[in-house]
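Model: You mentioned two targets. I'll fold them one after the other.
Researcher: Yes, keep them separate.
Model: Target one:
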Amino acid sequence: MPFKFKRADKMRHPIYDFAHGQSDSIEGVTHSICTLEFEGHRPLYDWYCEQLGIHHPQQIEFARLNLTYTVMSKRKLLQLVEEGHVSGWDDPRLPTLCGLRRRGYTAESIRNFCDEIGVTKFNSVTDLSVLENSLRSDLNRRAERRMAVLHPLKVVIENFPEEETITIEAINNPEDESAGKRDIQFTREFYIERDDFMEDPPKKFFRLAPGREVRLRYAYFVTCTDVIKDETTGEVMEVRCSYDPATRGGSAPDGRKVKGTLHWVSAAHAIDAEVRLYDNLFEQQAPEDVEEGEDYKSNLNSNSLVKLSNCKLEPALKAVKPGEQFQFERLGYFCADSVDWQPDAPVFNRTVALRDQWARIEKQRPTPKKKKR
């Protein structure tokens, strides 16, 4: 055992300085790696080893890892668990290894993150986006692509044969040719994201709208011809379209272009699933930086977990194993939950979005006033 990483509560162990060096010596440790609060205790560590004439390991101190939008203190994490703010130590919102694993973080992404930030003696806070970018980079190479609709809106192609099903070939991972391809089914009725349709779109909205043509991923160009609404609420319940059979594969023989490409799932073949959208556990970058009389829990993010039911997914996603990871096209990276997964009731956790959403949020926030000393 050449190395040992040590962290302990010195206030609870008054004889720690006496026992620390002897324990390391007995175990044959060559380098005792500690956090910075032990730096002032190193002289005692060295003195005891020298006076006792025992094997003398070298103690080295380093700054502990701190991340934005979370807390790393075991005491505070325990409080969050015991008070029911999270579901347990493996809650995907916690920075624990079991929580990160359940959320879909890979071992490689965590190792790459640690290599990138390195070891330092300077107390600092690492932006969570550095860890997330390491994960995106890893999953972009390894995660197969699938299509899933989280907020479904039905679309009917009026000029498509009612009983016909067309098999279309889709790429599993454009970053990895060895991942191969898969077959997906295209039918007269399918689902798109509700946010991908607007009746009265703003100028830079390039998705589906009345009279507008868009591309369906791997499939055809479709044009919105009609909208079916709920008579009571006025909510859009269904969109009617026409399709151009000559545009199969996503390009037009006459060379016309469309700006919007939408993902979709066949209504006849979709499976229903629950999708859990996990986000930062805290709203502020520094949760422990609070006003007098408040504590870090006042910064808890009430939207850190959103559960969506009746999501529509590709049928291939029914046969996956708990813990398997995928990129849901245009939505982010997701994994099959390792605790609540059931073959007849699939549950997927959002691991990370395709882009850093919180960077935009931070830009929109006013600069906080400096506290008076």
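Model: Target two:
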Amino acid sequence: MNDKSYKVFNAMVDIIASPGKALDEVKQHTSWLWWPLLISILLAMSVFAYYYSWVDFPWLVEETIRGLPAENRAESAEAVRSFMKPGQTMWITLISIAVTSLVIYTIQALYFHLTNKMTSGAEIRFSQWFSFCVWISFVSVFGSLAALVVMLMADSNQLATTSLQPFSVNALILHAAPGTTWATWASSLSLVTFWSIFLAALGFGRWTGTSTVKSWFIALLPWVLIFGIWAAINAR
């Protein structure tokens, strides 16, 4: 029986403090997805809007050029300088955050929806899986808040976008040079990623009754494939 006193704000706290309870409740309340969806996207957009108004933009342009492959740097430099304008770069980034987030949630929801059909057959709608993907990604707000803290504590406004990811595998472990393929690979994985995977495994098991081992396999499989293939390409 659902707890009628349990509201969306309780779920936003519990997805961190008591994720099992939160995931059980949001399964029955698909409409709640708008709160974590809007908060996570708008927070990320606000952080980058602030970043582009704060960063030393001429320095950022030259830093972007320095990060290009050496063989293409000279011929691409002028094109980068022409394309990278503060307002234009900011709006492209903000629109990309919103569009990319929605595309990723849709792909993830389709994956879980089809996987559920093939494994457990539990009666769960696509809209519920979309909500599920929004909720397990809500912890991305900590990545946005960390980026804001990095800017507020920075010694100067000459700060690359890669420095806004203090929880990434590159920042914590690999320390690959900016602009390299391994830096991009490792910067795309973070503690928040692993947190979301944990929530996906936990939630898929609770929603479908699937075993813990199978739920973890399903939650990990896309990430292992994507980053495994990407690593293999980088290693060539």
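Researcher: Noted. Anything on target two?
Model: Residues 8-235 form one domain.
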